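Re: that chain you flagged

S.,

Sorry for the slow reply, it's been a week of failed gels. I finally had a moment to sit down with the sequence you sent. For the record, here it is as I used it:
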Amino acid sequence: MTLTTHLVCAPDNLDGLYRVLAWQAWPGEQIEPDMPLVSLISANERIWIVAAPLGGVLAEHCVVEGDTLEANELLALIEAEEKPLGVNTLLGEDTGEETLSIAACLQGHRTDQSQRQIPVDLMALCAQLGLAPEEIGEPATLTIDAVYRHVRTELRLLATLRQMLGSKASN
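Prediction finished late last night. Pasting the structure tokens below so you have them in one place:
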């Protein structure tokens, strides 16, 4: 099994600004699908309960009680165990030349046999995420876990930047 991080975002049909009212689940807590995670409240007192889209462990709150947000903003991260997906599951059957022609793959693909080649499934994952393997690390240390760690770090940074920009806009 592979541990994957899933994003929990505010519903896309929120109408206007909502404030984070209260969390019902905490980081490190085992959660079940459809379990209430967080309550949001609008200016006109409409309450919206956001439920877990899947079971797993609540890894992180990306907003705190009192924060103001809009539709689709990142609320939390859930880590869940999943069966590993092969490259054919991610990209379909035709993954050879077409996948390796994606710019993110070309940047990290080594054709020199004296250098270690990055596995095709790892290159395909980078391509799917729009990443150049060099953004993540040296080819010798590049693993699927390293890609996931890189993406989680970038998501946390994005959430922090959104909070900072949101607080400046309200001042």
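What I noticed first: The helical segments are 87-91, 97-100, 103-108, 120-129, 133-136, 144-170.

Talk soon,
D.
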